[in-house]
Design goal:
The chain is α+β, with helices and mostly antiparallel strands. It has one domain: Heat Shock Protein 90 (2-Layer Sandwich), CATH 3.30.565.10. It is built from 2 helices and 4 strands; from the N terminus they run ββααββ. The protein has a 4-stranded antiparallel sheet with strand order 1-2-4-3, covered by helices on one side.
């Protein structure tokens, strides 16, 4: 499977575009994430979306379908 990452920045902020051709998923099915519970159970992984949601200002996910040939995750971080 191929993954591509594109970074774009200007004085207003940073945009990260991550595309892959793996299986699509519903990120809302994974939320809300109980980070404390994961930490207490020492579960490996499972915090990626939680951490992204805490650090980034906007997150968009477009699954692979008839319109999109790849999954697209777009992340925005405002500098202002």
């Amino acid at each position: 499977k191929e993954v591509s990452i594109t970074l774009s920045a200007d004085s207003k902020g940073l945009e990260i575009l991550i595309e892959d051709d793996g299986p699509s998923f519903d990120p809302t099915a994974l939320l809300p994430i109980d980070a404390e519970k994961i930490h207490k159970n020492l579960k490996k992984g499972g915090l990626g979306l939680f951490l992204i949601s805490k650090v980034m200002d906007k997150i968009y996910y477009f699954p692979k379908d008839n319109t999109n040939i790849r999954n697209r995750l777009i992340l925005f971080k405002n500098f202002v």
